[in-house]
Amino acid sequence: MDPRETLSAIAAPTGDIGASFYFDPATVAAGREIGLDGFKFYILGRGGALGDVPAAVVTSAFGYFEPNLIQAQWDKARAIVDPATAAQAYFDECGRRGSERFADLDGLDAYVDAADEVIAHADLAGRPLFAGISTLRCATDDPAACAAQKAAVLRELRGSAHLVAVLASGLTDAQAHSIKRPDDVALFGWSEPPSLPSDADERMASAEEVTDTMLVGAFATLDDVRADALISGTRSMHARLGDGASG
User: Can you give the residue range of the structural domain that contains 149?
Assistant: First the structure.
């Protein structure tokens, strides 16, 4: 199978799967148990994979958010919980949501094996969130939990590459966010949408193509069996999200 076909098949659904635990009520409740509200658990849980760093580093790795928003949330959250502790706790919640939703799905061991192949061959350069999350401890004794966690790692892989590709296209991260999520400008801390160039859509399309080019080498290591397993597992997990079932 052509690696670009594999990339295309899993890109959007992996984004959905990898983010599906972020503000799940059970995840939010787990954050409250360690003193963090839902948004602080998201910021510290994702960003904590970078370590105990200044807020500017988190802003750089996340992209898209207004920097003052990140700084306020990050500094308040890391005064409550050590970032590395929060990162593993957040990743553990990802696994728990996967166990709850995907426990009865077939083929997740093969999905994990294929995802590990991609992750092992992905370049770390310029991909700090991916590099950080890929070092966290997975639920290796639970295929459903581990599959959800691997999807989150693959989400950060594409997201990290895409942020670089967006900037290379000549767009700012704020512009790219406004194009893709025009209703969420204020949610990400911006007071108003940025002005956009006349060829904004073309630049975004170019950024998607460059993202695939940056990732194709890692996916090229998959044989047809593993590529099929990655696509099949992605589709079955995504379908379960669409069903609204908890497994």
Answer: 3-243
145 neighbors 115 (Cβ within 8 angstroms): no
What string of DSSP letters covers 171-197?
Answer: --HHHHHHHH-GGGTTTTT-SSPPP--
Q: Please state the pTM of the whole predicted model.
A: 0.95
pLDDT at 243 (0 to 100)? 72
- C-alpha torsion angle, residues 42, 46, 48, 54 (rounded to 10): -80
The pLDDT value recorded for residue 1 is 83
- What's residue 245's pLDDT? 42
Residue 138 is given by DSSP the state P
For residues 197 and 170, the answer to whether their CB atoms sit within 8 Å is yes
H-assigned helices in the chain = 3-19, 25-33, 38-47, 55-62, 67-78, 83-102, 108-121, 128-133, 143-168, 173-180, 200-219, 224-243
Residue 13, CA distances (Å) to 77, 233, 236 in order: 30, 11, 10
- The enclosing H or E element of 48 equals none
* Nearest-angstrom CA–CA distance, 107 and 48: 31
Q: What is the pLDDT of residue 224?
A: 97
Q: Is 169 helix (H, G, I), strand (E, B) or coil?
A: coil
Q: What pLDDT is attached to residue 242?
A: 83
At 49 the pLDDT is 97
Q: How many domains does the chain have?
A: 1
Q: Nearest to residue 133, comparing CAs of 164, 95, 96?
A: 95
What's the pLDDT at 244?
A: 57
Positions in the chain short of pLDDT 50: 245-247
Q: Residue 115 in contact with residue 241, Cβ under 8 Å? A: no
